[in-house]
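Changelog note: in this version the structure field was regenerated for every chain. One regenerated record is shown below for reference.
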Amino acid sequence: QVQLVESGGDSVQPGGPLRLSCAASGLTASRYDTKWYRQAPGKERELVAATTYYLDSVKGRFSISRDNDKNTVYLQMNSLKAEDTAVYFCHAHGPVGALWQYDYWGQGTQVTVSS
């Protein structure tokens, strides 16, 4: 059974850092194209970060990384702003290069940026 479990969401003050984790089980994260999305209240879900992509509004502040030994993908978020408030989701697509590819989503983790 494939599971993506996000963690690390919290309430932080503007300007603060936060690191989100996406722990994968049932699949090898390094074989998948993993991305971070977010959805703010009343808005559509948007792609925030991927291996070669960052949303314009987060460039220079967010970075995606992976620890293959832990089968975990991270989203390091610095200089957080109120507009970063959203539920953040981990997404995996793959296996890359396979004939049949699948999509998996985590349950989401809440990030609230407020003073």
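Spot check on this record: The first strand starts at residue 3 and ends at 7. The chain has a mean pLDDT of 96.
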